[in-house]
Each structure stands twice: as structure tokens, then as C-alpha cells.
Automatic annotation (TrEMBL):
Residues 48-58 have a biased composition (Basic and acidic residues). The lineage of its organism: Bacteria, Bacillati, Bacillota, Clostridia, Lachnospirales. The keyword Calcium does not apply. This is Lipoprotein. It comes from Dorea formicigenerans. Residues 24-34 have a biased composition (Polar residues).
Amino acid sequence: MKKIKLVGVTLALFCTLSMAACGSTQTGQENQSEPPAYSQGEMPGGNKDADAEKGKEELPGNLDDIEAEAILGGSVAEFQDGSFQVVPMEADAQTTKLAASGMESTLESITVSYGDDCTFHIANINSATGAVEFEAATSSDVKKSTSVYIYGETQDDGTIHAAKVLLPRYK
């Protein structure tokens, strides 16, 4: 009876370890076959976004560029047509702090306005490499608790008029 239990436990342990090893091997293979990142307004399939026609606006090539070039990064607290409130993220060399989901309205926020000339893009970011792929978006993709990076000009009253809004999505 003891031998049967010992064999059963050993077999279960072996199966568990072999499944764990197979799972990590597949993850490693997926990271190696990532498609190339598209930047500078180029979209998958060779299409150019609307900004390419209006002065060939360049989009950041990686996560570091997105964070460095943005005038504001944070989480959307409130959204109305033509403007939204953003709770700024706090970042240092090692960490980034965002508002907890659902708590945005209780924190200090900055008003961001946008016009018809503002462009919206979803930035699909590879968490491992920081490479970015862009796809077209609209203002309707911005919702409460959405993470955003804002590019534009700060007005005298402290509000920001956005020229471009990136919505980061991490893979």
C-alpha cells in the first residue's frame, strides 16, 4: 500500500513539473515571433493615418519615447465631449503610480481639451521589449479609468489642449 502511494505521489509530481516546463517553453517561443513595431504614423497593412497627410507627424517608436515626449500621462477621471479630466501618474526611475480604478474622481486632476484636429491612437506595447505598434482610435475609445498619454500645449489657465492622445495597451 505504501509503495502505491509513493508511486502515485511521484507520478503526480513528475506530471506537474513537466507541465510547468512546457508552459515556460511556449512563452519563450511567443516572444521571439513578435511582429515588427510600426512607427512614424505607419499602420499595419501599409496604410498611413490621417496625420501623415497633415505634416507627417511622427509617433514614438518605443515606450521610453512615449513617456519622454508626452506632456502628461495618467488615468482618465471624467470624460465629456471635447474634454476630459486626467489624474497624473507619479513616476520615478523604478516605479510608476496610477490612480486606483474607481478612485480617479477623488484625486486632483488636470483638464485636457481637444478639437477636431486632435488625433487618437492605440499604442500596443510589448511589455518585454518596449516596442510599440499603433492603430487608429477615436475619442470614443477614451473612457473613465483609461490610461492616456497627452501631447499638446499647456494653456495659461493650466489646462492642456491636446494635439495627440495615445491610449497604451500592454501585451
